[in-house]
Amino acid sequence: MKITDITIDRFKTTSRTVADADGHGHPAPEPYETTSSVMRIHTDEGVEGVTVGGNAALVESIVKPLLIGRDPFYREQIWHLLNERQRLHKGTLSDKLICAVDLALWDLAGKATHQPVYKLLGATRSKVPAYASTMCGDELPGGLSTPEEYGAFAKACQDKGYSAFKLHTWQPPIEWAPDPKMDVAACAAVRDAVGPDMRLMLDPFHFYDRQDACWIGRELEKLDYYWIEEPMDEQSMSSYKWLTDQLLIPVVGPETMEGKHFTRAEWIVQNAADISRAGVGDVGGLTPLMKTIHLCESHGVRCEIHGGGPGNLAALCAMQIPGEYYERGLLHPFVDYETPPPHLHSIADPLDDEGNVTIADTPGLGWDFDWEWIAAHPID
Ligand SMILES: [Mg+2]
To answer: How far is the CA of 137 from the centre of ligand 1 (A)?
Structure first.
């Protein structure tokens, strides 16, 4: 089998969330028209691999010249070619684009062999407990604008079946944020609302200094929180080593630090965090995510997966160490997460009554695109 072409379909769709000036999503006043794209890797045998995303100009100039004519099952070779090509193209060839190519190749392999990707990886389970992961705090009355509103939302998520809940608290561009005391007040209100048994985690402002991060962590210990995630700039690994030494509560990281599985290896060797973290989008695809997971397993370190979607769910269903939770969201009292956007027939992460997400058993990664809708809403 040979790769013959890579195409990007850009199309109009609708969204219920808008990004603030810092890039964090919040509820949109009304659903509005936006754009999306699907990358397709074509082969001479008619099998296609698909995934969301992809930049047409970069695919044309960098990815296609490397991939056309290659066997799509040579994922490891292709991933390394793209990783090496990044060296002089760091500003343009992102981990996100490498991730899209890698996910499309995994989808293709699943379709060619008539197997879901998590079984190709070596399956361990077909469903994963999910935590409700909130959007960042806001100033929308009735939304996530006060500690009490976080508490009420956590209770609603508990009633829906979730066994765990993670707060993202207030951050710039909100004028008064960040505020460590408000973060802890929200965490206390959530604990108060859901009782002692729900697993709770905090992902606060990412640029606190050591003292603020340590104070928040110690308050979370009193509230029996399960982990604290990325409270400081991850470019300073020694700050994390310091924090991890101070706290009993597990510190989770690195999440957004560049460097793929190589960075995670350095953090593990330095004991810079208690639990490692990676998602397909952070490390450049499912191929390096599985390396990260096996690296963690080799050191007895947990690896909590960052973000949702079919690639991360496939990894979670193919790992032996926890990887305890699927991150479901981001959620908000005003946003309907359960109804798919118009370009999908169904969402990738349906929740059952016990708070688990079950993976699709269809060949490939399980994307359920509405191809008729996509074809009817093209952008030139
Ligand atoms: Mg995070």
So the answer is: 14
